[in-house]
Every structure is written in structure tokens, then in C-alpha cells.
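Board notes (copied after class):
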Amino acid sequence: MKKLFLLAGAAALLATPAFADLAGELSTAQTHAGMAATQADIAMAHKHLQHAVNCLVGPGGAGFDEAAGNPCGKAGAGAINDSTDAAQKAKLTKIAADAKMGVGNSDLAASQAAAKMTADAVAGAK
């Protein structure tokens, strides 16, 4: 009987969703935006900036691109979703929208500038 309770407890722990790591999501978003700002290739700039967007909006969020990959996939549901502060959510929503414009831009310098602004803005929103 004791083993049964231990097994049931272990199963419950495995079924429990991971706790949100908002600080980790923001740090990863900032890192990827910073990486995007220094890329010499527009495809790589877009990829890293999309990673930042994915960390901010989370799966199912506006602008999420599963094909690009989600470096924050195990950290939570996206920084916007995981934040409990309304003002921070509003800032992060604007940052994500601005970053998406950089992903959609075909000019490398403009994408790099959007990425730098994204990295700086995420740092300020922490």
C-alpha cells in the first residue's frame, strides 16, 4: 500500500506543469534579440528576433512561429502570459509587436535596429 501511495505521488509530480520562469523568458528574449542585432545575415537576424518574439508571446500568442523554434519552450507560456503585472504585460505586448516588424523587414540594417531596440526594451521591462 505504501508503494502505491509513493507511485501515485510520483505520477502527480510528473503530471504537474512546469512553473513559469518569467525572468528566464525575459533573459532569453533579450539575449536572442541582442544576437539578432549583430547578425550579418538577414535570415539569421530574423531567426533570432523571432526567437525573442516567441519567448515574449508564447505558443498560441500573436506572432508565434513554431517553425522558428522556441528557446523558452520549457520556461513557461511566454513572458506576456506569465507576467502578473498589467503594466509589464502592456510593455511586453508593445515590444513583441515592434519586434515582429523587424522580423518582417527585408532590410538587414532595419532588422538589426529593431532587434537592438527589442533587446534594450526587454531589459527595461524586467
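Comment from the instructor: The chain has one domain: 21-125. The two ends are 48 Å apart (CA to CA).
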